[in-house]
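User: My instructor asked us to take a sequence, write out its structure as tokens, and then describe one feature of it. I'm not sure where to start. Here is the sequence I was given:
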Amino acid sequence: MTPVALYDACVLFPPSLRDFLVWLAITGACRARWSAAIHDEWIRSVLVHRPTVLKASLERCRELMDESVPDSLVTGYEALVSGLMLPDPDDRHVLAAAIHGDANCIVTFNLRDFPEASLGPYRIEAIHPDDFVSRLLETSPVSVCLAARRQRELLKSPPKAVSEHLATLENVGMVQTVALLRPFADLI
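Assistant: Let's start with the prediction itself. The structure tokens for your sequence are:
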């Protein structure tokens, strides 16, 4: 069964991780979900940490993500937010979107913000992106390699060799994934 994953804002910045996660959905390794609020959150984060980036280019990226991944944009979840309990109330919209979007996991770096006790009743788990992609490699290695290859092929300024591309993914926390991808370098 193809996993349905809600991507938390923290995994949509840095751009190399965001692009890889989107490509995983495009190639069919998973079905990705996010919300307008999640888009707003990652865009705000980019603008704070990289003030030279134009907001218009980030909005264009948002549009391309929504167009490239069918059924990715979760709407209509807002009524669920107030009834949810999480350590940080500001994260309730993420869980609400995951529930309404029929996700079985939330891909996030902030695992402590989504405890099993809060997610378990909805049969949703919080998972680190490295663990998420490592699992995908077990069930859909061709789709994951294709996602990595398509992402790498689009890198033109400058183009990257496979080893450079894998190093970039490793630098954004995908250490286990990169170790598992190295034997498939010919496919990337």
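For the description part of your assignment, you could build on this observation: The longest helix spans residues 36-49. Try explaining in your own words what that tells you about the chain.
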